Amino acid sequence: MAMKDLRTAVRNVPYVWSMLDLRLPPSDPVDRVLGKCQTIEDLRVAARARVPRPVFDFVDGAAGTECSLARSLEAFDRVYNHPGPVDAMSGTDVDLSVEVFGRRQAMPLVLGPTGFTRLAHTDGELAVARAAGSAGVPYTLSTPATCSIEAIAGIEAPPDLWFQLYVLRDRALTLDLLQRAKAEGYRVLVLTVDTPVAGDRRRDSRNGFSIPARIRPAGMLQMARHPGWIKDVVTSAPLDLASFPLAGQGDMWSRLKAIADSDFGFDEIAWVREMWDGPLVVKGILDAQLARRAVDLGADGVVVSNHGGRQLDRTIATLDALGPVVDAVGADASVFLDSGVREGADVAAAVALGATAVLVGRPYLYGLMAGGQRGVRHAIEIFRTGLDHHLRLLGVDAVAKLERHHVSLAPSPLTTVGVTASSAPARIRSVG
Ligand SMILES: Cc1cc2nc3c(=O)[nH]c(=O)nc-3n(C[C@H](O)[C@H](O)[C@H](O)COP(=O)(O)O)c2cc1C
After folding, report:
1. Burial letters 47-70, b for 16+ CB under 10 A, else e
2. Which domains, and CATH codes, for the chain?
3. What is the pLDDT of residues 26-36, one digit of tens each?
4. What atom in ligand 1 is closest to the CA of residue 144?
C-alpha cells in the first residue's frame, strides 16, 4: 500500500468504526425470528422452518394442481398503480380505518376463518383472537375451530368477533352453533358456501396427513427436526374440535367429513338469514349473478373467495372476479375479497376496485407458526405498515379516498395460456 493510501486509511478509522453495528441479536428466539421477517413471504419461510412438513403443507397447500391459488396470487402482479398528486404527504397521518357494518376498525383487514388452528401453534385461535383484538381488526372463528366459541369470547379485550358457519348435515347442531355464537356476542355471521365436500389436497394425501397425526418411523425423524413444536404439542391439551363433539370412529378429519359434507342448497341462505339476527356475509362467491342471488336471499355482504385455492381447482382469480361482483350488488351489500392477499398494496388494490375490506388466512397462520401470538401481530403489522406506505406513495391520505382510478388491472394472460402450479409465479414457489 502506498504511503498516501495508508495515511488515508488511518484517517478513516473513526469513519469505518462508526459503520460497525456491534449490537447483539435479540436474546428472545421469537424476536430473533420475527426481526428478520419484513414480508408475509419471510414469515412463510420462517414458518416452514419451525413446524413439521405435513403441518406446513396442510396450511400452505391448496387443492388439485393448486392452480386456483396460483392464479389468485398472480392477479395482484397485474395491478398497475396510478398515483394522484402526492403533495405534502410526509407529515400527514394516513387514516387506514374503515367502517364495516356500522363499526369502525383499524384497517380494511379481517382475519378470516381457518379450521384446526391449534395444529399451527398450540395457542391456536386464542392467540389469533388476542392479536386481532390488540390490532383493532375483526377475527372470524371457524366452525371446525380448536378453541371454543365461548373460550374465544371470554378473552380479555376481544376483537370484533365474527363466526364462520358450515351448515352441517345436522341442522339442530347447526342452529345450536348459531345460538351460542349470538349469545357470546359474535357480531357478523360468515356463511361458507363453497365446501360441499372437502377439496382434493394432494400434499396432505402424499404426506399421509391425519388428525391426530399417525407418525411412521420416517415421520419421527422429520418431527425430531422441530423440537420447539414437539415440546409445545406434548405439553398442551390434545388437539380437538372445540365447539361441538364428533361422534364415530376413525381420525377426526374423516369424522368431520361425515357430518360436514353437506346437503346444503344455495337457497338455504334464506333459512340462515331467518336464524341470524345480525350482518350475514356469504363466503365463496366468484360469480356476479350468484352474488346478486345471495344478496336477494338476504345476505348483507359477500366474500369473493376461492377458499385460498383449497376447494375447487382452476377457478378465476378472485381479483378478476371482484369488479363484476361489485357492479352486480351495487349499494345493496358489502363486498369482501380473499385468497392470495399478501401485501399492503394488495389490500389497497382490492379496496380501490370496490372491496370494503379483505380477509386473510395463510398470512396470519404463517405468523402463528413462526412466532405464536406475536407472529400473528407481526403479520398484521406488515399489512398495516405496507398499506400506510403504499397510500402515501399513491398520494392518498385515507383508505376511504381510494377509488377505481387509482389502479387498473391488466387482463389475465391465463385466458389464453394455461398455467400449472409448476409455472406459478416465483413468489409462491420459493419454499420447496
Ligand atoms: C388452514 C386453513 C384452514 C381453513 N379453514 C377454513 C374454514 O374452516 N372455513 C372457511 O370458510 N374457510 C377456511 N379456510 C379458507 C380461509 O378462510 C380463506 O378463504 C383463505 O385462507 C384465503 O386465502 P389466503 O390463505 O391466501 O389468505 C381455511 C384456510 C386455511 C389456509
Report:
1. bbebbbbbbbbbbbbbbbbbbbbb
2. 47-428 (3.20.20.70)
3. 899 999 999 99
4. 8
